[in-house]
TrEMBL record:
EC category name: hydrolase
Species of provenance: Jannaschia aquimarina
Lineage per the UniProt record: Bacteria, Pseudomonadati, Pseudomonadota, Alphaproteobacteria, Rhodobacterales
InterPro entries (alphabetical): Alkaline_phosphatase_core_sf (IPR017850), Sulfatase_N (IPR000917)
Coiled-coil ranges per UniProt: none
Protein's name in the database: Arylsulfatase
EC number: 3.1.6.1
An example Gene Ontology CC term for this record: cytoplasm
Residue ranges annotated for the Sulfatase N-terminal domain, each copy included: 5-348
Range of residues in the leader sequence: none
Keyword Transferase applies: no
Length: 462
């Protein structure tokens, strides 16, 4: 095993961890993701520090919480520094990036040696040049809401194109070409960032019909919860939920096609793994598979993400590196996307950065350290505008107890071990008063530690 192994970081968009086949929680089949878990380590309680595309990716690539580098706006924020990629470039790695960037316009070349596949307009042109339908399905008005701003909806439709010409196959092709044409005198750090299974749910056969909608089981937390925070009732994404339908029957096809979309992504992952295996470098490469955030799919009566509930904040996080980390380990240690940077630096014998907020997970993966099962976890979100109808929130989880504080003063408290679907809010329960006080105090300390700009509001309200 080389001192400086290669790195392949594969990222999906908006993928819930219950889609991972090896977890057995849904009918979704993901043999290539399963292989990574079987030959590596899956962190089954991984979460995003912010359940929104740009802030979560900023946390991944900087090792910081998104407020620390002004990356909370999903449209206007832009990275000034990219600590993870800069660390690897500084360590002699060739850094290549294929696919979705979403961390600013015209800045990716500052952090990479090669980058392609981010522009959806170029992909649409690529389709047109080949006489194909537009594979960038967000351009299809049938899957966009009539509301403003116009967002994607849960509507599922078939896409009349071959799987190998879809946007995610196009991105996989770029990643494979980067690997094939790389500078072989240096180790590589290759990112492959897919757009799926983020909606719209418009995919080709066989994936569109791969799963039977009848197999979608209504989740216990589907629909609004009595006594929910006011921000849920007024949320733009509650309106999109209601537009699609309060009856779960309206959502069955959405679930089935979401699983099919995930299987399409899994097949693209398999193509990349096969390319590395064919040239004999797979076992000298750290493979990380993760997603930026989850998807509500009607849980708590909400569409999309941006809330502190499990369906929104949990993500897949899998590492594979034979000879350096365990095989087939499923860890319950709470982990976060901010852990990726320090972990990869340690595995590749590169210097860590003092500002990184995450933990190095390599000792846990090697079986050399006991997992910290009671670790405090922190997450946040800032609304994208008044149109969202929500308020900023902060979340702490410790010992499987979760507290969510909302800027309007609402507090939610859940015992995740007893109540994994977050149906029973304990915040007003006299029997949970001590737990509430403890978690509020610990959340205050966490916010102070990371210089959270909402700490004065928190102190005044909470």
């Amino acid at each position: 095993m080389t001192t400086h192994p290669n790195v392949l970081l594969v990222m999906s968009d908006q993928q819930r961890p219950d889609t991972l086949g090896f977890r057995g929680e849904t009918p979704c089949r993901t043999p290539h993701m399963d292989r990574l878990a079987r030959e590596g380590v899956s962190f089954d309680r991984a979460m995003t520090p912010c359940p929104l595309c740009l802030p979560s990716r900023a946390a991944l690539f900087t090792g910081l919480y998104p407020h620390e580098n002004d990356m909370l706006d999903n449209t206007t924020s832009a990275l000034e520094t990219c600590q993870l990629l800069e660390t690897f470039r500084g360590g002699g790695y060739e850094v290549s990036y294929a696919g979705k960037w979403h961390l600013g316009q015209d800045n990716i070349d500052r952090f990479t040696d090669r980058a392609a596949g981010d522009s959806t307009a170029l992909y649409s042109d690529w389709c047109k040049e080949r006489g194909l339908v537009d594979g960038w399905t967000f351009n299809d008005p049938r899957v966009r809401t009539h509301r403003q701003p116009s967002m994607s909806t849960p509507v599922a439709l078939p896409l009349d194109m071959a799987p190998e010409t879809t946007n995610d196959a196009y991105i996989a092709d770029i990643a494979i070409d980067h690997l094939r044409t790389r500078d072989r005198s240096r180790p590589f750090f290759q990112v492959c960032s897919f757009n799926g299974p983020h909606p719209p749910f418009v995919i080709p056969e066989p994936y569109f019909s791969m799963y039977d909608p009848a197999d979608a089981v209504r989740p216990p937390n589907f629909g609004p919860r009595p006594g929910e925070p006011a921000a849920n009732e007024t949320s733009y994404y509650r309106r999109l939920f209601l537009d699609h339908g309060e009856d779960f029957e309206a959502w069955r096809k959405s679930y089935a096609v979401y699983w099919g979309f995930t299987s399409l992504i899994d097949d693209q992952l398999g193509r990349i793994l096969n390319a590395l295996e064919a040239e004999g470098t797979l076992d000298d490469t750290i493979v990380i598979y993760l997603s930026d955030h989850g998807e509500n799919l009607g849980a708590h009566g909400l569409w999309h993400k941006m809330v502190g509930y499990e369906e929104s904040i949990r993500v897949p996080l899998i590492f594979r590196l034979p000879g350096r980390i365990s095989n087939g380990l499923r860890s319950d240690m709470p982990s976060s996307l901010v852990d990726v940077a320090p972990t990869l630096a340690r595995l590749c014998d590169l210097p860590s950065r003092p500002e990184w907020r995450g933990r190095d997970l390599s000792g846990v993966m090697a079986g050399e350290e006991a997992p910290d099962l009671g670790r405090e976890m922190f997450a946040m979100h800032r609304p994208l505008g008044d149109w969202m109808g929500t308020v900023p929130w902060r979340m702490i989880e410790a010992d499987r107890k979760k507290l969510i504080w909302h800027l309007d003063g609402a507090v939610e408290l859940f015992d995740l071990e007893a109540d994994p679907f977050e149906l029973n809010d304990l915040a007003a329960s006299p029997g949970a008063a001590d737990l509430r006080r403890d978690l509020l105090a610990r959340l205050h300390d966490l916010m102070a530690e990371v210089a959270d700009p909402r700490i004065e509001d928190f102190a005044a309200i909470a």
